[in-house]
Design goal:
The chain has two domains: about 1-150, Rossmann fold, CATH 3.40.50; about 165-340, Rossmann fold. Helix content is about 35%, strand content about 15%. It is built from 13 helices and 13 strands. The strands form two sheets. The protein has a seven-stranded parallel beta sheet. The protein has a six-stranded parallel beta sheet with strand order 10-9-8-11-12-13, with helices on both faces. Strand 2, helix 2 (about 40-50) and strand 3 form a beta-alpha-beta unit. The longest helix has 19 residues, at about 325-340. The two termini are about 15 Å apart.
Length: about 350
């Protein structure tokens, strides 16, 4: 089967790109798969970062670029049996036999026009990365949607646990409509305040990916942590991240904190791969009660959820001061992560493309 895949953000380092590249890698095992992407060098950093093998995937000219006219795009799309299109809520007009939309984040947009509804009829299925994302779909798309959670590959290492509170996420302060998208500064401030209030013998580790144009802002964040037990891990590979997942005891997550999520649901975590991976490494999650985090953490069973910083600190101290509870939740966290990891992502995707 000849399959084309389009993601306009393939040079990014986010979970969405990990999802798309994993999908391409899976489908390339039994199909002729092409990525509509013009620059091979852009993918090198992303594939190394996520340790994903796309050696069987071909890069082809991006028919969705401005260089391709409308009719030229239609002609090229007719050469594919399947096209999978990462959508921002828009629906392309294509001549492939099957069209699948993929949504990585909740979309709030005006009602679809009559023209849009005609285009939707050509869509075979809409793939969502979480129930949270699916919940914001227009009914005309929701009726065609299915949730396929991102692939989770757990690689915990046998190392001794250390008194570490960890957070993992891209450093993004621009082009997402909100400052401090992952709320790293919020979590850093919370930890610094805990230290000022007497917390001892614990370290905060912030693992992140930083682009060159973001370095100046990132250095400001690092400066705040001077003389505190804080460590920054920058642009580490997936394998290197498993070192810190396995060493850490507690995992913090705050994406969406302080935002108007009714107006901007995309400002919350759409799913939360890093949360699941941290749990797989034996980190107990204490995460914000928003977005896809609710689908991962069972409050009071394998971790905690919170709505304000005072509660975040209170729950953290509860675990720190009760080693027995921390150990119990560590085991439960691993169990919940394994539930996601046991799913056969490749099989789910292949069955959908074949039968959808």
């Amino acid at each position: 089967m000849k399959i084309g895949i389009f993601d306009p953000y393939l040079d990014d380092l986010g979970g969405g790109e990990k999802y798309i590249l994993s999908l391409a890698s899976c489908l390339s095992q039994n199909n002729d798969v092409s990525l509509f992407w013009d620059k091979k060098e852009d993918l090198k950093e992303v594939t190394q970062r996520f340790s994903i093998d796309i050696s069987r995937v071909e890069l082809t000219k991006n028919i969705f670029s401005k260089d391709f006219g409308f009719f030229q795009k239609l002609k090229e799309s007719s050469k594919y049996e399947v096209i999978l299109f990462l959508s921002d809520g828009s629906i392309p007009i294509l001549f492939c036999k099957k069209l699948f939309l993929h949504l990585q984040q909740p979309i709030k947009r005006p009602r679809y026009s009559i023209k849009d509804h005609l285009k939707i009829k050509r869509v075979n299925k809409v793939i969502c990365n979480s129930k949270y994302t699916q919940g914001y779909l227009d009914n005309s798309l929701k009726n065609k949607s299915i949730v396929i959670y991102p692939p989770i590959n757990l690689k915990p290492k046998k190392v001794n646990k250390e008194n570490i509170i960890l957070t993992v996420g891209r450093f993004r302060v621009k082009n997402v409509g909100t400052a401090d998208y992952k709320k790293q500064s919020v979590l850093l401030d919370a930890f610094l305040k805990m230290v000022d209030q007497g917390l001892k013998n614990w370290k905060f580790v912030l693992a992140t990916s930083v682009r060159e144009h973001e370095r100046e802002e990132f250095e400001k964040l690092k400066k705040k942590a001077k003389d505190y037990p804080v460590e920054f891990l920058v642009n580490k590979t997936n394998d290197e991240l498993w070192d810190i997942y396995s060493k850490s005891k507690i995992y913090w997550h705050a994406t969406g904190f302080g935002e108007d999520l009714e107006k901007h649901p995309d400002y919350a975590e759409h799913f939360g791969i890093s949360t699941v991976e941290a749990m797989g490494g034996g980190c107990v999650p204490i995460v914000i009660d928003a977005g896809g985090q609710r689908e991962i953490v069972d409050d009071g069973m394998n971790g905690f959820i919170w709505n304000d910083i005072q509660t975040l600190k209170k729950l953290t101290l509860k675990l720190i001061n009760d080693p027995g509870l921390l150990e119990k939740f560590e085991n439960k966290s691993r169990e919940k992560a394994n539930e996601f990891a046991k799913r056969d992502f490749c099989k789910e995707i292949q069955n959908l493309i074949t039968n959808g």
